[in-house]
């Protein structure tokens, strides 16, 4: 998806070559496959990182080890991205520390609008699904250094194994990551089916959110775009109003996941 980096402060950092592998990026997201793939992209771009599963772990990570950039999902259990951002800003003020940029990740701007991000102390927001090009743009803007661009399969086609290997670096990484991502996607797919049958707006939107995050890293389909749009529509009108579109999305998603299982 052509996500756009939006600044909530109007300020950015000038890029200075060369890339600095000693820099530390903190990834905070409750979606394990999404964390793993973001980590893979950061490694491919030459930037050190650590990943945690919720805002409370993110806050502890910041306290224990300074970060140069934080990329955090907004909606997480226990402590969400907003509460974490506020806690980090309080910690910085108490300790007299430099303000670390916090970039919000969201699949739904209806609930996670820029003003809410700004009020929590975040510096910018990104729409999920986050492609490698968008991550590259974030690093160029918010971290010193220049980073090599990496391509993705063109939109509208399902990725081949060769394209997945090109994206993730080597065969071993694909073999390690793809099965786990597909396992989570099938689990989310089953819960999405149940949520649609019971007309649960919240659960439908949540599972679409997770599936969009998984699909974004595979690239080459229009399913991410359709999923993001469906999240907005379901939040606005409920499940029943968009039942045909949801059914068509699930049918295409099933075919895509079955194809990826054979890649």
UniProtKB/TrEMBL annotation:
Comp. bias intervals (Polar residues): 1-10
Domain named Response regulatory: residues: 24-143
Modified residues (4-aspartylphosphate): 73
Region annotated Disordered, chain positions: 1-21
This protein's record includes keyword Nucleotide-binding: no
PROSITE patterns per record: RESPONSE_REGULATORY (PS50110)
InterPro entries: CheY-like_superfamily (IPR011006), HPT_dom_sf (IPR036641), Sig_transdc_resp-reg_receiver (IPR001789)
GO molecular function, one term: ATP binding
GO biological process, one term: phosphorelay signal transduction system
Pfam family, one: Response_reg
Top-level division of the source organism's lineage: Bacteria
Any one of the GO CC terms: plasma membrane
Keyword annotations: Phosphoprotein
Gene3D superfamilies assigned to the protein according to its UniProt record, in alphabetical order: 3.40.50.2300
The name this protein goes by in its record: Response regulator
Taxonomic classification: Bacteria, Pseudomonadati, Pseudomonadota, Gammaproteobacteria, Pseudomonadales
């Amino acid at each position: 998806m052509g996500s756009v980096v939006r600044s909530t402060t109007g300020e950015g950092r000038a890029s200075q070559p060369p890339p600095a592998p000693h820099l530390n990026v903190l990834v905070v997201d409750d979606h394990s496959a999404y964390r793993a793939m973001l980590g893979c992209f950061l490694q491919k771009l030459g930037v050190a990182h650590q990943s945690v599963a919720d805002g409370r772990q993110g806050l502890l990570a910041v306290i224990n080890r300074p970060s140069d950039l934080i990329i955090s999902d907004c909606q997480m259990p226990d402590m969400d991205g907003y509460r974490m951002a506020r806690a980090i800003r309080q910690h910085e003020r108490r300790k007299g520390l430099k303000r670390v940029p916090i970039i919000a990740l969201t699949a739904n701007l209806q609930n996670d609008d820029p003003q809410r991000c700004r009020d929590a102390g975040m510096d910018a927001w990104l729409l999920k699904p986050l492609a490698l090009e968008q991550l590259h743009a974030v690093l160029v803007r918010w971290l010193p250094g220049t980073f090599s661009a990496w391509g993705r399969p063109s939109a509208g086609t399902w990725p081949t194994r060769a394209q997945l290997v090109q994206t993730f670096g080597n065969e071993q990484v694909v073999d390690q990551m793809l099965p786990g991502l597909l396992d989570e996607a099938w689990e989310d797919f089953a819960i999405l089916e149940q949520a649609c049958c019971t007309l649960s707006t919240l659960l439908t939107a949540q599972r679409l959110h997770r599936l969009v995050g998984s699909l974004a890293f595979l690239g080459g389909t229009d399913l991410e775009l359709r999923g993001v749009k469906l999240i907005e529509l379901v939040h606005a009108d409920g499940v029943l109003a968009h039942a045909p579109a949801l059914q068509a999305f699930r049918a295409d998603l099933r075919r895509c996941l079955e194809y990826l299982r054979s890649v």
